[in-house]
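Sequence in, structure out. Go.
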Amino acid sequence: MTEPDVAGGSDSDPTIEPTEEPRQGKMGIVVSVLFVGAVVFFAMFASKFGQDQLISASPLIGRTVPATALPYLERSGELSLTEYDGDIIVLNFWASWCPPCRLEQPDLVRAADELSDLGVTFVGVLFNDDAGAGSRFLDTYGRSDRAHYVLDDRSLMAFDFGVIGLPETFFIDRQGVIQAKISGGVSYELLVATIEQMILGNTPESVKTGELQTRN
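Output:
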């Protein structure tokens, strides 16, 4: 039996060789889709963190702060927000792995140093992170001797305040009532403007953060 001459073929039965064009076309579409997705992702990221944020809406506005107590990050003892009734409290949730937290930290330190004598208490809550990483963050980006840093390693206070992203900052009046929330990075100017409104007895509903400047 003679095997068919596959290699030779004939003029009457030409073999059509596939080209690379369809495959290249598909790859181009995939690359385009991935590129568009990346652009959308980074646009959403920039929008959420530090780009001209308004005071955020929150169901917690108007509610009294919970009496949750958390351990201090770098010393013994615990802190409860109810200890500071009579003060305006700036409550900031942060983590060492959070890029916007690095941007805002120097402004939080400056505000705490300058405004504490006005009866303003700054509390930084390390959330979803470990104590060692938190201390190294403070070594690098700054800490205020006038502020308090606590560790929420069981997400107790984060749960009470409904924290879903970092950073988030809450402003609490002298009666222990939550008056404002900001999702995303804060600037020194925002902190001062918001606290001034609260000192005057106003609800800070329309203060903007402005644009955070990039820091190395």
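Check: The longest strand covers residues 120-127. Residues 1-10, 36-52, 209-216 have pLDDT under 50 and may be disordered.
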